[in-house]
């Protein structure tokens, strides 16, 4: 097929955006539907604004005679602190008890503060059910895949739109530049594939320029604009590894953003001489193809980076 690079990059981009949108529209959910036992649904939310009420809500679905008799959240302000019970209470509407139970977490005033918790509930059949947060693949990786559960958490954040002058513009610019960088890097990958099909200076220049503008957009959007956004949101600025020590991941989002920029910057700097000589008589088609190979390698590293959940909080690095 003459257009296989275009077909391949379209397939990759559609699959990537489908995966990303799937993650955005599918909430994290904990549920059990096992008739005739009592069913439940719990949808956690891991952030809220400082000094606001944050609701824990669990919905019970009766399939038989079993019903909930008590539900409790066990809270701790730190991972190593003793957990204190917080009872959930049933919600009543027009004098009738509904199947929804709620509790309000005590509000916290400092940005970046967290409540850690897990839930239990007891049923009329004498069963006690405990609900803990599932670890994602990245969290399991740092436990050596020896653990699968951890505590839920809620982080208290600042409001960028309200607290920063022109905060809405800044936040939108941050998102647009970061996503725009990915689109430019898709172009880079497309031209890299074209270099395999037909190595010429046109495709090499396009690949190099797309990578340059892509990583520049990411640098401005994720780092330069991201620093004040992070500072107003979490009360801290820029904390990539190893600024917090060699044994700490620091802020995982800052760390992965920095690693991505470094990887692409090394690729561009290593091939800058090839870029300058591309239109001379002693052009180097072999090095253009090598550049394409390294674009694929760095792109795979970028995929790994973006598979790490955004604003990932690593409990293991805090314990």
User: What series of H and E elements makes up the topology?
Assistant: HEEEEEEEEEEHEEHHHHHHH
The tally of beta strands, per DSSP, is 12
| Fraction of residues in H or I helices | 40-55%
Alpha carbon gyration radius:
25 Å
Strand content: 15-25%
Major pleated sheet: 10 strands, mixed
Shape verdict: elongated
Q: What is the number of helical segments per DSSP (H or I, 4+ residues)?
A: 9
Oligomer: single chain
- Report how far the terminal alpha carbons are from each other: 54 Å
Spans of at least 5 consecutive residues with low confidence: none
Query: What number is the mean pLDDT?
Result: 90
Specify the structural class.
alpha+beta
Describe this structure in words.
The structure is a single chain. This protein has 319 residues and is of the alpha+beta class. It has helices at residues 4-25, 137-141, 160-163, 167-197, 201-224, 226-234, 252-270, 272-277, 285-307; strands at residues 30-32, 39-42, 47-49, 54-61, 68-76, 84-93, 96-105, 114-123, 128-131, 133-134, 149-150, 152-157. It is built from nine helices and twelve strands. Helix 5 packs antiparallel against helix 7 (252-270). It starts with a helix and ends in a 12-residue tail after the last helix. The model has no long low-confidence stretch (mean pLDDT 90).
């Amino acid at each position: 097929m003459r257009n296989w690079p275009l077909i391949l990059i379209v397939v990759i981009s559609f699959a990537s955006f489908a995966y990303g949108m799937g993650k955005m529209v599918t909430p994290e959910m904990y549920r059990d539907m096992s008739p005739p036992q009592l069913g439940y649904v719990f949808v956690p939310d891991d952030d809220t604004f400082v000094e606001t009420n944050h609701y824990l809500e669990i919905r019970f679905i009766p399939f038989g005679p079993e019903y909930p008799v008590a539900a409790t959240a066990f809270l701790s302000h730190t991972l190593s602190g003793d957990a204190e019970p917080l009872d959930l209470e049933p919600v009543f509407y027009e004098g009738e008890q509904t199947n929804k139970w709620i509790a309000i977490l005590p509000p916290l005033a400092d940005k970046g503060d967290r409540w850690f918790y897990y839930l239990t509930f007891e049923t009329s059949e004498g069963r006690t059910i405990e609900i803990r947060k599932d670890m994602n693949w990245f969290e399991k990786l740092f436990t050596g895949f020896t653990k699968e559960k951890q505590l839920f958490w809620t982080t208290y954040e600042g409001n960028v739109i309200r607290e920063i002058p022109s905060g809405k513009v800044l936040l939108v610019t941050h998102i647009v530049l970061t996503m725009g960088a990915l689109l430019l890097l898709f172009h880079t990958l497309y031209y890299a594939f074209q270099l395999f099909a037909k190595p010429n200076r046109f495709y090499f220049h396009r690949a190099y320029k797309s990578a340059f503008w892509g990583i520049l957009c990411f640098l401005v959007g994720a780092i330069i604009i991201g620093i004040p956004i992070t500072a107003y949101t979490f009360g801290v600025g820029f904390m990539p590894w190893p600024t917090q020590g060699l044994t700490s991941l620091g802020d995982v989002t800052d760390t992965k953003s920095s690693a991505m920029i470094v990887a692409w910057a090394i690729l561009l700097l290593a091939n800058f001489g090839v870029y300058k000589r591309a239109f001379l008589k002693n052009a180097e088609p072999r090095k253009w193809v090598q550049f394409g190979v390294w674009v694929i390698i760095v792109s795979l590293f970028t995929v790994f980076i973006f598979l790490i959940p955004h604003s990932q909080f690593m409990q293991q690095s805090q314990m």
